[in-house]
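Ops channel
N.P.: pipeline sanity check, posting one input/output pair.
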């Protein structure tokens, strides 16, 4: 009888799909719960937009698709670590450094769930700390996405996010990236409107 070769199993994408089960804002009372899968899409869309704005108006030459892909995977390690609240993460420099090391190990663990040839292709999407310009964009996009979440909660009458909204807005307002200033001035105001107030035509 002919023996059937055992198929190798790789669980990378099955684990990525579980991003939807990792909740954000663990210390906060949420009107609308948010998971890291939803957040990652927001970050990807905003990172793409920031690069498009930079390239269109400020002489930039970054790749918007690359920025979007970094945004998609920027929190993938939280599948294993969960979303640690920012005040806890930054409570102590040693704790912060240890947590970053844990995040790196989690990313490596995910990459081990791919065939080696594919893992090499995906690795740059998980480790892009050396890409300073892209790092700045993704960090700004991450903060903008958090700000829009705060705005959404405020519109729902939840004052739990009021201080976080102020802090995020102040930090973004101090950004040296002109595309961030553009976004805050021209694109962010729409997030504060109701559906009836948005311009549909």
């Amino acid at each position: 009888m002919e023996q059937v070769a055992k198929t190798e199993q790789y669980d990378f994408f099955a684990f990525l799909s579980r991003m939807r089960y990792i909740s954000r804002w663990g210390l906060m009372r949420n009107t609308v719960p948010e998971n890291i899968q939803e957040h990652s899409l927001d970050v990807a869309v905003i990172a793409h937009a920031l690069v498009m704005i930079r390239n269109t108006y400020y002489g930039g030459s970054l790749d918007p698709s690359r920025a979007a892909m970094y945004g998609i995977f920027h929190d993938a390690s939280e599948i294993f670590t969960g979303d640690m609240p920012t005040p806890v993460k930054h409570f102590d420099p040693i704790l912060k450094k240890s947590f970053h090391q844990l995040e790196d190990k989690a990313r490596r663990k995910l990459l081990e769930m791919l065939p080696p040839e594919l893992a090499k292709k995906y690795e740059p999407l998980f480790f892009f700390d050396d890409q300073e310009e892209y790092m700045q964009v993704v960090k700004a996009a991450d903060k903008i996405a958090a700000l829009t979440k705060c705005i959404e909660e405020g519109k729902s009458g939840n004052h739990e996010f009021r201080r976080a909204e102020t802090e995020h807005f102040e930090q973004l307002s101090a950004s040296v990236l002109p595309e961030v200033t553009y976004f805050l001035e021209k694109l962010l105001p729409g997030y504060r409107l109701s559906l009836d107030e948005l311009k549909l035509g």
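N.P.: looks fine end to end. The chain has a mean pLDDT of 93.
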